[in-house]
Amino acid sequence: MYxxxxxxxxxxxxxxxxxxxxxxxxxxxxxxxxxxGEANADAAxxxxxxxxxxxxxxxxAERTSFQKVLKEARAExxxxxxxxxRLKALEVAMLLGYxxxxxxxxxxxxxxxxxxxxxxxxxLRIAGA
Length: 129
Hints:
The chain is an all-alpha fold. It has helices spanning 2-16, 22-35, 41-48, 52-61, 66-82, 89-95, 101-112, 116-128. The protein is elongated, with a radius of gyration of 15 Å. 26% of the residues are buried. The mean pLDDT is 88.
């Protein structure tokens, strides 16, 4: 199931990001890195075969940063994972690279102005209607 979720996450991120820019390439690589607990710039550079300075320079040229791209990828994947009823909130947090449910909840609230549990209830209610 874990492998399937990672594959789905990567496919989803690729579908959102069809451009050739470095931010989109980075976002496409982050799902695996997050799930492996390696959501950091050094791991991303190794995956993209770039030096850290080159990644920073290219992201700056696109008016973004590693942290911004990571935040966007986490936010997009969070809602995707929460739609899967089989995943517990703690599993979603771990797949996104958070060490605790509380840090995931805090981040999710900052993105969507509600806790993940409330989001999930609303989505399931809509899907069941």
